[in-house]
Design a protein that fits this description.
CATH superfamily of the largest domain: GAF domain
Largest sheet: 6 strands, antiparallel
Structural class: alpha+beta
Helix content: 40-55%
CATH topology of the largest domain: Beta-Lactamase
CATH class of the largest domain: Alpha Beta
Shape: elongated
């Protein structure tokens, strides 16, 4: 009889575990957006109706730059915050779908201190003694118990998380590690069991494939909206981005500025050196604009020798300072054969227009920034007008 009860209990537990994994898998299939996929994975790891860890973070491989980068972290920073979150979930009887939908309508997770902490982590794959690198290179789960974690107490991850017990689970797609989940119970101090590990590994197997599909999708979207020469967003996608950012600015009552950038005397350069040399200049300038712009800005190729930069949450005064810094940096930059130009230097003219004062639609802002750009040209070029 005792043996039969034991079998029943194991069957019930297995049924519950499969139900949890089924729910998380279904949720991952509802989107191809990477940030939503990462949130679903981490919610599955930390939610009481999921695997129930107190805290979890997700790191992705960046093979191009040889880095492991922190992408998202979910979890409270202290007992009070944990208690508030758990009480709310209990009172509102929130299930996995409710928690996932909350992410789409709120920015709380992205603004949390723990998430910001995780997103600042960048580890070189050459750091062989780093725990994240170790997990990635070995491709095997690492369970640091209360005893073994002491061997790593001076490492960056342990000092930052202040964990007494920790698991690192590699995520794989086609036997290749593409990410790592790090999870712990730093609030409740509950020990991590073999069953916890087994469930986390099963989730990781699905998560790795979901992340790969999302990255392939985002790469396809990016390539289809990219200008092939400059590798900036193309004209069509610029129009979409401007409308989208303008809608956000209206909804949040925040400013937005559009910057128009035009190469001075580009026709002379093309006529003397040919269009291939002109293409090289366009490509070089595009790279410079991208490197000098803020991460939050959208650098696009408008057409010909004209570029646009969308500056969200930026009023005109700040945008003017940014534009002037760009203009001066471009003037100082050594471009190939720029001595053929009238002033022996390649320069740009810039025009600015801002929401709400200069327009409330994409066409009005484009018209206004175009107008100020032509004013810059009329005033002698290599200046910013607004």
């Amino acid at each position: 009889m005792e043996e039969l009860n034991k079998i029943k209990q194991e069957l019930e537990r297995t049924k519950l575990e499969l139900g949890i994994l089924y729910e998380i898998s279904n949720a991952m299939r509802t989107t191809l957006k990477l940030d939503e996929i990462l949130y679903i994975i981490l919610t599955g790891v930390t939610a009481h109706i999921g695997l129930g860890f107190n805290r979890a973070s997700l790191f992705l491989m960046n093979e191009k730059d040889g880095l492991i980068e922190g992408k998202m972290g979910i979890g409270p920073e202290n007992w009070e915050e944990a208690n508030r979150a758990w009480t709310r979930i209990e009172m509102e009887k929130m299930d996995l779908d409710d928690l996932i939908n909350a992410f789409k309508t709120s920015n709380t997770v992205m603004e949390s201190g723990f998430n910001r902490l995780i997103r600042h982590i960048k580890v070189s794959l050459k750091e062989k003694d780093n725990l994240l690198v170790l997990a990635a290179l070995e491709g095997m789960p690492l369970h640091l118990t209360r005893e073994t974690i002491q061997n790593y107490k001076n490492t960056q991850l342990i000092q930052m998380l202040k964990s007494e017990e920790l698991v690192l689970i590699p995520l794989k797609a086609k036997d290749k590690v593409n990410g790592i989940i790090v999870a712990d119970n730093f609030i409740t101090k509950e020990p991590i069991t073999k069953d916890d590990l087994r469930m986390l590994i099963m989730l990781a197997n699905q998560a790795g494939l979901a992340i790969e599909n999302s990255q392939l999708y985002e790469k396809t979207v990016m390539l289809s909206n990219m200008d092939s020469l400059t590798e900036l967003w193309n004209h069509g996608y610029f129009q979409f981005l401007l409308q989208s950012e303008l809608d956000k600015a209206k909804a949040t009552s925040t400013p937005l500025t559009l910057m128009m950038v035009d190469i001075d005397d580009f026709k002379i350069y093309n006529d003397i050196l040919g269009h291939q040399a002109g293409d090289r200049i366009l490509k070089d300038l595009a790279g410079l604009l991208k490197n000098l712009s803020r991460k939050m800005d959208y650098v696009c190729r408008y057409g010909g020798e004209e570029f646009t930069i969308i500056l969200p949450a930026t009023e005109k005064k700040e945008a003017f300072q940014i534009a002037e810094r760009l203009r001066l940096d471009i003037e100082k930059h050594p471009f190939a054969h720029e001595e053929v130009l009238p002033h022996k230097k390649l320069t740009v003219s810039l025009g600015l227009a801002s929401f709400p004062e200069d327009g409330s639609s994409p066409s009005e802002l484009i018209r206004a920034s175009d107008k100020t750009l032509y004013q810059a040209k009329d005033k002698g070029k290599n200046i910013t007008c607004c």
